[in-house]
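Re: weekly structure request thread

Next one in the queue (75 aa):
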Amino acid sequence: EQDVSTGVPAHVPCVDQPLTSEILGDEVQPFSLDEEFDYENVALTPKFSFEEIETIKESSNQKGKDTNLDWGPHY
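Done, posted below.
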């Protein structure tokens, strides 16, 4: 278990960000960084919980042991 600092507030952009669907082509969109936000000390959070990682590992192990040649979905 990692200690995650809760002293760093989550960053909320000051400028309205366009939705992904509004950005067309390869045009570079202007942006600015928040001068008050400490980008060097951001508390990172894991993408998956411990339980999700265990489920993924178990699923991966099952697929490796699966000798069923049926190519349909496995539930």
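The first helix runs from residue 50 to 65. The chain has a mean pLDDT of 75.
Next request, please.
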